[in-house]
Amino acid sequence: MSMPSSAYPVNNAGVVAKPGTPQDTEENLDFIFNINLKRHVGENLVIRLNKLAIPHLEKTRGNIVNVSSIAAIKPLAGVTAYSMSKISLDHYMKIEAPALAKKGIRMNNLNPGYVSTNIVSRIGGPQDFFEKRAQALVTHQIPLGRVGTCLDMAKAVSYLASDDASYVMGTTLVVDGGFVLGGPEIPGLENENEEKL
To answer: pTM score, two decimals?
Structure first.
C-alpha cells in the first residue's frame, strides 16, 4: 500500500452515552450529538480545521476521513442517539463529498465495528458486562471471531488516505470483521445493557 503523499485531517470523535444519564433523555441526545456530530460538522473545531485545510488539500489533491460507526448501518439496541448521530455523519459526508471532489479533495468515512477501545467503558457500568458483551459478540455475531483493534482501524484510515484509494470517494468503508453480516442481537444483552447504563 502506498502511503499518503501529504497530511490529512481525520475527524474522530465519539461517545456512546453521557455517563450516568438514561439513554432516552434529551440531555443524553444533546450530549451525544454535540460530540459525535457537531464536532464534525458544527461551527467549531472540525469545520474550522477542514476550512483551514481545504486550500492545502486542493494543492495536494488530499482527502478527509471521518470516523463513523457500524451503528450507522446496522440497527443496535440500546444506542439510539449514538446511531442517529453516526447516520447523520454518514449523510453529511455524502452531501459534502461531491462538492469537495470538484476541488480535487476526496472525503470518505470509516465505519468501524466493535473495536477494543474505552469508548464503551467510559459510559460506566461494571467491567464484566463489557467483557461479557465482547465475548458474546465474538461468539455469535462476528464471523472473523475477534473484536477489532486500533491498528485495524489505523490501517483502514491509511488506505483511505493513500494513493491506492485515489478513486474511492464519498463512500463508507465498513471494517467490522463481518459484524454487519452476523446474527441478530444477542438475547438478553440489550436489556441488561439498559439496566447497567
So the answer is: 0.80
